[in-house]
Amino acid sequence: MKKDSDIVVVGAGLFGLTTALELALQGYRNVTVLDRHVPPVPDGSSVDISRVIRFDYADDIYLKLAYEAYLEWYQSPKYKGVFFPTPVVMTSNSNPVGKAYIQKSNDAMDRASLPWESFKSSEAARRTYPTLSGPLASPGFLGYHNKQAGWADARKAIAGLRDECIIQGVSFVSGRAGTVIGFDRDGASGTIRAARTLAGTEVAADLFVLAAGAWAGSLVPMYNSTLATGQVLAFIRLSPEEMVKYERLPIYVNFSTGFFNFPPHQDTSMLKVVVHGWGYERAPTEAERRLLKSDVSTPPLAASNGRKNYIPADGERRLRDGLRELLPELADRPFEQAAVCWYTDTPTGDFIMDYHPDYRNLFIAGGGSGHAFKFLPVLGKYTTLALHKDLEPALAQKWRFRTEYKDVASAFPGDGSRGGPERRQLLAEERAKL
Q: Which PANTHER family match (predicted)?
């Protein structure tokens, strides 16, 4: 590909910005990013106040890459004030799936000679971290902690990526002219000619990078290789006294239920709680079906100023149950805000960094499956290696576009890290509130 080739990146989130920046750094002069919003995109999965940064993985490849990224977060001056070192406590109750994931993670870290320390009981965890006032994962507690972890202020990190892109000459188009609703395809040549926008314009390019996250599946056929799922999160406002009380709160994860938390966020005085589970599917509205010509699960397309302050009732119960095991004194506190975050799940939990099987100039970058953000410092390097077809074979195999799930029902077993009830469709009254 020539350095003056026209490259259009659809999506200004984690995958889109890291790819655009790396291409610009490699000398590509005509890189344009299209999105409904100027980043940070308010309803994107890579934006709000916090994301977990850890290298604890049951998969050897992701563990290695996550550790590479962690060292950048921890050591690079560019992430000062963005990354905050914080211990992570990983737990499971008697659920065999959660226990198996923890054991596999411990084994993988041992193989890589990376640190972790087991807790013999929930009491031992509370002695180490006295702010943990609840019973923790029970019955059948299994847990460990890793002090080499932390969290990143996601909005600041994405804003930093945006600024780097601008400095390197990347162009941005937002609003209706940046809202991609489909592609003009040339079936004879097997290529995409242009992206079509809500403004009625077409944006032509030599190469298209589709990095639209949970919206990608509504733009091109993904052959059941991705699924947009909604995950619940909420924020509790803390008093100045509580900010001091909980300032040493670790990140706590229960793989059996999917519940996890963050320490207090100093800029907003918020404590964030989340469920990393099987989530919710959302059927498109009739207007979205007509516009996108797609019936797959998708987040709302209409541009907004942010996520709606709403989560389904069963999602709220799961968050409050998690608080009861972690910080029961906060379990009934009103949420300052609650929202649905949209994942792009894949059947195996692996990313997709590969060319679309139908279009030789359409590269797919996504499939974050709720665990991609931690790779931000190194993600662009690997995405562009895949784009240039220079990935090492093991990574190319892991991140390939999988067509084998096209006709397979319920083909999303994941990577073993999900907990809680099975995925379900949002009801009509729930969809109306998003």
A: FAD DEPENDENT OXIDOREDUCTASE DOMAIN-CONTAINING PROTEIN-RELATED, PEROXISOMAL SARCOSINE OXIDASE
